[in-house]
Amino acid sequence: MKIHIILEAAEEIDSARSYFNQQAYALGDRFLDDIEEALKRIEQDPFSLPLLETCSESMPYRRALLKVFRYAVVFEILTDQVLVVAVCHTSRAPHYWLKRRES
Q1: Are 88 and 74 in contact (CB under 8 A)?
Q2: What keywords tag this UniProt record (predicted)?
Q3: Please, which pLDDT band fits residue 27 given cuts at 50, 70 and 90?
Q4: What is the DSSP string of 30-98?
Q5: In what helix (H) or strand (E) does residue 8 lie, and over which residues does it extend?
Q6: Bridge-partner residues for 64, per DSSP?
Q7: How far is CA 27 from CA 31, 39, 73, 98, in A?
Q8: Is the overall model pTM greater than 0.90, yes or no?
Q9: How many CB atoms lie within 10 A of CB 34?
Q10: Domain count of the chain?
Q11: Closest by alpha carbon to 67, among 35, 43, 94?
Q12: Quick one: which of 19, 57, 72, 97 is 20 to 30 A from 91 by CA?
């Protein structure tokens, strides 16, 4: 299934990559590798990934945890695509990104 990353989520990826590159040489590249691996899992079988446990059961959001970094890719399965709405640290306040889907 085709994946579309909204602007805010893309900015979160870029911001985290920049931060990690400041911490250690090429760490931001390792972060991007981890993101790409999560996106491949989403693309292959988005329905196999769990619903976001911090949302009510009526909300359609799912998450893919990164393998190395403590981040999650939050996404929604639409008819013809998967929409990535956030790439967030797992310790960040939940649901800060919900307003992104209201517009």
Answers
A1: yes
A2: Toxin-antitoxin system
A3: very high
A4: HHHHHHHHHHHHHHH-GGGSPBPTTS-TTS-EEEEE-SSSSEEEEEEE-SSEEEEEEEEETTSPTTTTG
A5: helix 7-23
A6: 73
A7: 6, 19, 18, 29
A8: yes
A9: 17
A10: 1
A11: 35
A12: 57
43: domain CATH number is: 3.30.2310.20
Can you give the length of the chain in residues? Answer: 103
Its domain, for residue 96, covers 2-101
pLDDT at 58: 78
Only one residue has tokens 């919900």, namely 98
Whose tokens are 């998967």? That residue is: 82
What is the average per-residue pLDDT within 16-45? Answer: 97
The number of C-alpha atoms within 13 Å of 18 and in the hemisphere containing its C-beta is 6
Q: How many CB atoms lie within 10 A of CB 57?
A: 7
pLDDT, mean of residues 21-26 = 97
